[in-house]
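Why does residue order matter? Because the sequence determines the fold. Keep that principle in mind as you read this record.
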Amino acid sequence: MPFKTRAVVALSQEKVVLRQVTVPDPAPGEVVVRAEYSSISTGTERWVITGQFHAPGAKPMPHPMVPGYQKAGVIEALGAEVTGLHVGQRVFATTSRMADDEVLPGWGGHIEHSILPQREVIPLPEGLDPVKASALVLTQVGYNGGFRPPVKPGTPALVIGDGLVGQWLAQALRHRGARVVLAGRRADRLAIAAKWSADVTVNVRETPLEEVAKREAPAGFDIVADSVGTRASLEQIIPLAHHESHLVLNGYYREGENLLDIQLLHGREITTHAPAGWTRDRLIATLDLVAKDAMHVRELMTHIMPVEEASEAYDLVLRKPSEFLGICLKWQ
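Structure:
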């Protein structure tokens, strides 16, 4: 029998609430996961809720919807044919299927009881802080970008963007041996980056990137990586790359920001990487680094808020009345 559970619901582009929704019983091969913590993908979810996340020419996701795609929780039930998992096991989970007459799943991440295929459920190491696993999809986005270009010890790399993806991208590059310069515009986020994510931080409101490049990579950067997702940010960092370097496109390039003069790359023979989405193998590899404290998650969570304050959490995301970096919702 379908049953009621709580979910974060975007009623419109401006209003997000916590309310009851209906989910189905698990089908064969599906798992029921009760959320403990779910983390907001602050960039992507903002674009989704405000109708800016869609393929060129396609329609945005309709409202009302349940946004998000990442949570840590505990298995409450198993459908037939599920093997290798057990009730009470702490896991990471992504999306959810729904059976609601009014609310669409979106991706269905921020929901107390998720109904999802076993392939989207990953067991957590014993004793791992669930907050560290609650943002695994987005942490994996940074991992994916950071593991694309070749890296040698001391490889000079420039990351632009001081948000979560930029910081995890920088952490992945740094873990592989690169010397990472992270550029951004927010002093509070750069202070966190200086402690956990990068070798050098630069506030572009105070110091021109060109000045830093002359000091840190006088011959040009081997790797330039964008997590901002604008044409302007790309045009800012590409000239700082040397001949036959690597460009990582680790942002979401919405309509109006998704066109680039290819000659900028052609003239320097730059190899370009365009990572996107998630895979189970990459999630598991990222989780391994998180468990080993090679990638830092809790340290980037500036706000851990009870899910009853979901409206206030999304007000931060949509209207930015005050500074934040990572936002995690606590369900229990």
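The longest helix spans residues 164-175.
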